[in-house]
C-alpha cells in the first residue's frame, strides 16, 4: 500500500473539505483522502491533529497538521508553488479575494443555510433576501475580479472561485428543499455562467458530491441535528 506524505481528512459532503480537495487537484498534489463522517466519532489522529476546534478539513503534510479550509488553500498555494497560482499575485487583488472569502464564511453561507433551518416564514424570507443580496454583491465582485475572463481568478480557477464554488451543490440542495431560486440566470447571469464553468473544470468535476446524495444527507441528518441545537 502506498504511503502518502500528504493526507486530507474529512468528507466531500462538507463544502470546506471540498475547498482543500480542489486546491490539491489544481496543484496535482498526490495525497491520501481519509473519509471522516461529519457526525461520526473522530479518530485519535483527527483529534490530535485539530485539538482546538476538532473540525474538518485537516491537511497533514508529513507529520504537520494544518487546519481551517482557507488557511489550507493558502498553504497549498505557497508550498506547491510550481503549480498554477491560486491566490492573486497582485497585493490589492489578493486582499479583495480574501475579503470576499471571509464574507462567504462569516455571513453569506450562514444566511443561505438559514433558509432551510429557519423557524417560520418571516425568518425564511429574511434569510432568502439576505442570501440573494449577497449573490448580487458577488456578481459585481465577479465583474471586477475576473477582468472579462470566465473565473474570479481570470482564465483559471483561483482562490475566490474555490471559496464560493465549494458551496454550489449546497446551493442547489437548498433551492430544491425550500423551492427558491438563488443563483439565477436572470438575476445573476455572470455567476450563473461561472457556476457552469466551475463545475465542469477538471479539478472540480469529480470532487463535488451528487445532488441527490447531499440532499439525502441534509434531509435525514444535517437539518434535524442542527435544529436540535437551535
Automatic annotation (TrEMBL):
Enzyme Commission number(s) of this protein: 2.5.1.18
Gene Ontology MF term list: glutathione transferase activity
Keyword Transferase included in the entry's annotation: yes
Catalytic activity: RX + glutathione = an S-substituted glutathione + a halide anion + H(+)
Any one annotated GO CC term: cytoplasm
Domain GST C-terminal stretches: 90-217
Keyword Transmembrane belongs to the record: no
GO biological process, one term: glutathione metabolic process
UniProt entry keywords in alphabetical sequence: Detoxification, Transferase
Residue ranges occupied by any GST N-terminal domain in the UniProt entry: 4-84
UniProt record similarity statement: Belongs to the GST superfamily. Tau family.
Database matches in PANTHER family: GLUTATHIONE S-TRANSFERASE U17, GLUTATHIONE S-TRANSFERASE, GST, SUPERFAMILY, GST DOMAIN CONTAINING
Protein name per the record: glutathione transferase
UniProt source species: Buddleja alternifolia
Amino acid at each position: 500500500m502506498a504511503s502518502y506524505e500528504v493526507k486530507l481528512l474529512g468528507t466531500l459532503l462538507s463544502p470546506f473539505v471540498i475547498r482543500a480537495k480542489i486546491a490539491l487537484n489544481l496543484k496535482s498534489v498526490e495525497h491520501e483522502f481519509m473519509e471522516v463522517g461529519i457526525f461520526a466519532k473522530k479518530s485519535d489522529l483527527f483529534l490530535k491533529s485539530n485539538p482546538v476546534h476538532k473540525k474538518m478539513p485537516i491537511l497533514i503534510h508529513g507529520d504537520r497538521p494544518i487546519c481551517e479550509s482557507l488557511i489550507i488553500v493558502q498553504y497549498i498555494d505557497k508550498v506547491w508553488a510550481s503549480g498554477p497560482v491560486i491566490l492573486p499575485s497582485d497585493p490589492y487583488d489578493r486582499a479583495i479575494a480574501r475579503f470576499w472569502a471571509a464574507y462567504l464564511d462569516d455571513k453569506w453561507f450562514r444566511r443561505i443555510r438559514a433558509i432551510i433551518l429557519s423557524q417560520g416564514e418571516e425568518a425564511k424570507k429574511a434569510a432568502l433576501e439576505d442570501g440573494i443580496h449577497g449573490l448580487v454583491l458577488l456578481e459585481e465582485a465577479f465583474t471586477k475580479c475576473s477582468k472579462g475572463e470566465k473565473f474570479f481568478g481570470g482564465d483559471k480557477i483561483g482562490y475566490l472561485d474555490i471559496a464560493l464554488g465549494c458551496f454550489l451543490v449546497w446551493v442547489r440542495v437548498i433551492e430544491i428543499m425550500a423551492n427558491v431560486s438563488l443563483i439565477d440566470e436572470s438575476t445573476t447571469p455572470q455567476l450563473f455562467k461561472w457556476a457552469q464553468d466551475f463545475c465542469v473544470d477538471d479539478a472540480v468535476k469529480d470532487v463535488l458530491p451528487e445532488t441527490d446524495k447531499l440532499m439525502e444527507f441534509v434531509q435525514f441528518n444535517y437539518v434535524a441535528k442542527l435544529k436540535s441545537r437551535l
